[in-house]
Amino acid sequence: MKGLILSGGRGTRLRPLTYTSAKQLVPVANKPVLFYGIEALAAAGIRDIGIVVGDTQAEIRAAVRDGAAWNVDVTYIEQDAPRGLAHAVLISQSFIGDDPFIVYLGDNLLAKGIVPFVERFVDAQPAAQILLAHVSDPERFGVAELTEDNRVKKLVEKPAEPKSDLALVGVYMFQPEVFQAVRKISPSPRNELEITDAIQQLIDDGLTVTPYIVDGWWKDTGKLEDILEANRLILETMERRVDGEVDSDSQIDGNVVVEPGASIKQSKVRGPAIIGANARITSADIGPFTSIMNNVRVHDSAIEHSIVLEGSDLSGLQSRMTDSLIGKNVKILRDPGTPSTYRFMLGDNSEVGIP
Questions:
Q1: Which one of 18, 164, 271, 320 is CB 3.0 to 4.6 Å from 11, fit for a cystine?
Q2: How many angstroms separate the Cα of 316 from the Cα of each of 81, 123, 246, 302?
Q3: Phi and psi of 115, rounded to 5°?
Q4: Confidence (pTM)
């Protein structure tokens, strides 16, 4: 069995961050989202993985390399433009060959991995098996309707009036018959080949598509609030570990990870939280559900429920920063010379909230 991770999307919902970074490499609990997918496939015994890449392929190749870090072999498959998930599957046919395979969206996270899903697919050998989850807003997703004998009857992409609350999770398993199904479908109104249409084609052709309802949380990290929620959920599973330097004037409460080389002075860190390697935390208050990446400096500031990427410098924030995602090498500094004014240099589509 082979694995196929789709990482060609542009991540428009995470701009401006994704103007300069692949959305699949945005970190959750200080680890790129994409790495969780690779780990899930490797844990299921899949060693041959294809990664579909687009405009951000150079960054993804540099981060993943040949897959040796996970004991897998990685092949890169170039998609010339975002033409839909089913198109990404179709252009991967030469890599897949005649093997059954699993498709994993590179910006998805599953609490309990995919091992049971893979085992059931191997045992039953349907034409396709899809993961589903109960959601409160099914109109945002592909939605499944099931038969009384627990087969998939119909799939609709982002219906205006959903007939169930079962949303497609970004993990699918296929037999090679899916390639013929993709060739039969037409582009959707947004000019993409939809994976829901390809799966529906399998159903229309009389082939069996079975559901697997996810036990545990699932997150599509395409939006800020979903990334922060995934960060919270993963931080809650981490155990306390302090490998960096914490001075006697600092307080570490709860499950906090302090990576080697990090320095915490005259500060308070309340878990769950993670402080990356070589970070410098001085006279600061780091609240729960916060991930501070490597080489970040936080001075005289209060932060909680946020993610701060590598190399950023936050200093003198008079009010507590919360619910935020700060990109790489960002500087947020208080200017003591102009206390009654604000001064910004921001990229396209940035958003700043001022209390």
A1: 18
A2: 43, 58, 21, 9
A3: -60, -50
A4: 0.88
Asked if 52 and 90 count as a contact pair (C-beta separation under 8 A), the reply is no
The answer to whether the CB of 101 falls within 8 A of the CB of 3 is yes
* Residue 176: partners with Cβ closer than 8 Å, 6 or more residues away: 93, 96, 97, 98, 99, 100
CATH 2.160.10.10 for the 238-333 domain, yes or no: yes
Do residues 28 and 235 lie in contact, with contact meaning Cβ atoms separated by under 8 Å? no
CB 169 within 8 A of CB 133: yes
Q: 2-230 sits in which CATH class? A: alpha beta
What are 192-229's pLDDT values in tens digits? 999 999 999 999 999 999 999 888 788 877 778 888 99
- The DSSP string of 252-268 is EESSEEE-TT-EEES-E
pLDDT in tens, 110-169: 888 899 999 999 999 999 999 998 888 888 888 999 988 888 989 988 888 888 999 898
**Where in the chain is CATH 2.160.10.10?**
238-333
Residue 335: what pLDDT?
64
For residue 72, CA distances in Å to 2, 62, 65, 69 come to: 11, 16, 11, 8
Spell 201-222 as b/e; 16+ CB within 10 A means b: bbbeeebebbbbebeeebbbbb
Both tokens assigned to 60 = 């993804």
The DSSP secondary-structure symbol of 189 reads: T
Which segments within 214-294 are labelled E, that is strand? 218-220, 241-242, 245-246, 251-253, 256-258, 263-265, 268-270, 273-275, 280-282, 285-286, 290-292
Domain with CATH 3.90.550.10 in the chain: 2-230
